Amino acid sequence: MTKSLETGFENLDLLPPGAGNAATWEKPRPETASEITAPQRELSPGGQRILMCSPEHFEVDYIINPWMENQVGKTNPALAREQWANLRWHLSEETAISLVAPEPGLPDMVFTANAGMVIGKTAIISRFRTEERRLEEPLFRNWFKQHGFVIAPWPEEVPFEGAGDALLDRARPLIWCGYGLRSGEGAPRLLETIFGRRTVGLRLVDPRFYHLDTCFCPLADGWLLYYPPAFDRDSQEAIATLVPPEKRIGVGENDALLFACNAVDINGRIFMNSASEPLQERLRAAGFQPVLTPLTEFIKAGGAAKCLTLKLVET
Ligand code: ARG
């Protein structure tokens, strides 16, 4: 395996799922130094760019959510790298990808959804609730600074875990912000002030779904994929008021536990760890194409497709 010094990205000799042989598959291109210093220059045809972080230091070595219980030391590094590379390969068909260098001793840095939140050229850097992850903050801050983002000030005393808890609606001019388990109660109001956009706070009540993106996924054309019991009653009502019933795709507990809501939607395709056949059928009926890409090693740490990505081009 070769390794790029700039990114720590390893060129993995992997085939995407379903690929016949190496000759028919083009390996993901390793990031070059110029791309790292000027990642905004070149975008995918759809204009999207996603931030990822390679999993070479990924493991479970502390417990900060229920998924991590009994998983310390139990991840399979080779399988994690393969699953991550497959996700990257799938995404690279639809979007440009930037990489932030992983850091030894920061196993959860691979979950770049928690780097911060971006709208336009403004970024808010996460203020993690847990000490374990606070060490990631300066690294993500540097990355955003080096890539031309304006960092909006955020108060030290309000936890906020970035795009893990703050998601843009894809049809309505609003931000959905989960709070109560990781991000603090004050986070929605602060987002509304900083971005000047209506922000709807949703209280999370099930510790298994501790970030909004584990149970809630706004999709194109105003569709919403979500697991209603993860929210308190008022939040369920707020969702029902803002999203018409025919646009709500509520999932059952089994699909929620498969991280079906932890999905990345790009150009009508929805990348996710897994989903039941009936859920896939509902997504197809709504005009989407589900793409399943197993991420079981990352679920041991409580994250899947969406957690492993951060959309950098948001309006
Ligand atoms: N172990 C990580 C944590 O508990 C997982 C983060 C998953 N990220 C996400 N956006 N849901 O913080």
Strand content: 15-25%
Please describe the biggest sheet, giving its number of strands, its sense, and whether it closes into a barrel.
3 strands, mixed
Distance between the termini: 38 Å
- Count, helices: 9
**Radius of gyration over all CA atoms, rounded:** 18 Å
Total number of distinct structural domains: 1
Task: Provide mean pLDDT, rounded.
Answer: 89
Fold and architecture overview:
The protein has a single domain, classed as L-arginine/glycine Amidinotransferase, Chain A, CATH 3.75.10. The chain has 9 helices and 15 strands. A 3-stranded mixed sheet has the order 2-1-15, with no helix packed on it. Strands 3-4-5 form a 3-stranded mixed sheet, covered by helices on one side. A 3-stranded mixed sheet has the order 6-7-8. The structure holds arginine.
Topology at a glance:
Elements: H1 33-37, E1 49-52, H2 77-91, E2 96-99, E3 116-119, E4 122-125, H3 131-134, H4 137-146, E5 150-151, E6 166-168, E7 175-179, H5 187-195, E8 199-203, E9 216-218, E10 224-226, H6 233-242, E11 248-250, H7 253-257, E12 264-266, E13 269-272, H8 277-285, E14 289-292, H9 296-299, E15 310-311
The structure holds arginine.
Arginine binds at residues 64-65, 108, 111, 113-114, 133, 164, 211, 213-214, 301-303, 307.
